[in-house]
Structure prediction request, 172 residues.
Amino acid sequence: MRQIEWAMWANEQAIISSSVILFGGIIGIAGFFQAWEIGIYAVIASILVFVVEYPRGKRVKGRTVERKFQKPFTRLVNCSGLLGRNYFVRFLFHLVLCAPLCFILATIMGGLSLFVTSMIYLAAAFKGEQWKPVGLEEKPAEDLTKKDLKSFRQPKKPPPRAPPQEIHDNRV
Prediction:
């Protein structure tokens, strides 16, 4: 049985959490709640979580499928060093962000979702996982010539075909 990669689960949970927080923040602003300022905080927090979590990390085994347009976000998270790579830091980041979201009804679902994300990141940190960038590594020149530049030759003979069947006319 394969080992669970907790960080992949946490990453997907964080993307979903950011969208739930964004919608809750918009509702909190437009719904004229008493603490509508938390709605503004929610919109800003959701954008921040999305920017940090959009790039997928490299999987331990197997292929990692990049998200569309992930490279700029990957460079940003990669430049942040320990703050972007360490899952203990991400656990604390999400835990601190989710606390104010639990004070108004419009953002409580997003806050709880972000809390679950932080707990999954805590599990990933205890398992020793770490974020590694995908798509920034350069391929060696010899790999390019062997794999990417390899092409197939045009066939010189047509493919074999079955002999034609004789058609019998059974009219009587």
